[in-house]
From TrEMBL:
The gene is OTC. GO terms for cellular component: mitochondrial matrix. It comes from Python bivittatus. GO terms for biological process: citrulline biosynthetic process; L-arginine biosynthetic process via ornithine; urea cycle. Residues 201-353 form the Aspartate/ornithine carbamoyltransferase Asp/Orn-binding domain. It is found in: Mitochondrion matrix. Gene3D superfamilies: Aspartate/ornithine carbamoyltransferase. This is ornithine carbamoyltransferase. Its EC number is 2.1.3.3.
Amino acid sequence: MSKVLHNINGENGDAVVSLLNAANIHKINTRLVQCIRSKHGQPVETSIQLKGQDLLTLQNYTPEEIKYLLWVASDLKKRIKHKKEYLPLLQGKSLAMIFEKRSTRTRLSTEAGFALLGGHPCFLTVQDIHLGVNESISDTARVLSSMTDAILARVYKHCDLVTLAEEAVIPVINGLSDSDHPVQILADYLTLQEHYRSLNGLTLSWIGDGNNVLNSILLTAAKFGMNLHVATPKGFEPDPTVIKIAEEYSIKYCTKLLLTTNPLEAAKGANVLITDTWISMGQEEEKQKRLKAFQGYQITMETGQEAAPDWTFLHCLPRKPEEVNDEVFYSPKSLVFQEAENRKWTIMAVMVSLLTDYSPQLQMPTF
């Protein structure tokens, strides 16, 4: 069974109500005027309001603001990795890193990236800071606001992030929550922009669980003009509220949204095949039930035969063989390790954009 939503008129998306309240009303948004260098070196002024903001969900960011973050990521990657420049943009600044859930890529990309930019990251586990238990989240936010310049939190409950953002007077970044994973999606989109040179017109195919990563894609893909096909087993669909917002976005931005339970239908004509773990942290007791429900959802070369000739594969890692076989995962079609590296450049772009008045030197890529 499938459901197709295809826009023919783009006027209805303005009424979308924010699903995930970032609670930024009390914060002062510093108007940031950037100088963009054209091909001829002439600066062009554009206003981006990012400094001082939170990043709890990309739903609250306009297409231009998301593109700006990817532009900064491209710029930093070129200047630091390829030109070997030293950019101490965060010198004298510190970052509180709250990790309720373990991580390889989120921790390493944030910690290494903040240090590479001259700042001091402070890693806090549940043994160091039992969020909302040893002291209230409100009190924690106030203490961290007085000692650090920003907070990145990887938590179980999204509502805890909202409380942090309400009480903190410094930027709060979502390193992962039960409802959203915005820093992962930025890395995915940077990877696809590097590979395809443009995101507009691509068709993404998600085959797997209706989880937080899929939520982030549903809330952003249409903003880049990307179509989205989603295949999830019955009972494992994305949040209905997120689906409703994605439907509104598909209308507003003139894109196609397909919801189905058939993986091959979702793969048909797709440029990008995407999946994620079927069993997230905290779902271990559901393992056998989930493995049974997801039979037939493994991505293989046979899945790719339904996709567009230029198809590629993404997975945010860590990967299990039942989700995608070795033939795809280690093939030239797979962009997973480029995707993993881009976690560093995109989180660096987020931290630089929320904490400084940085102006990219690289010409803005095509999106």
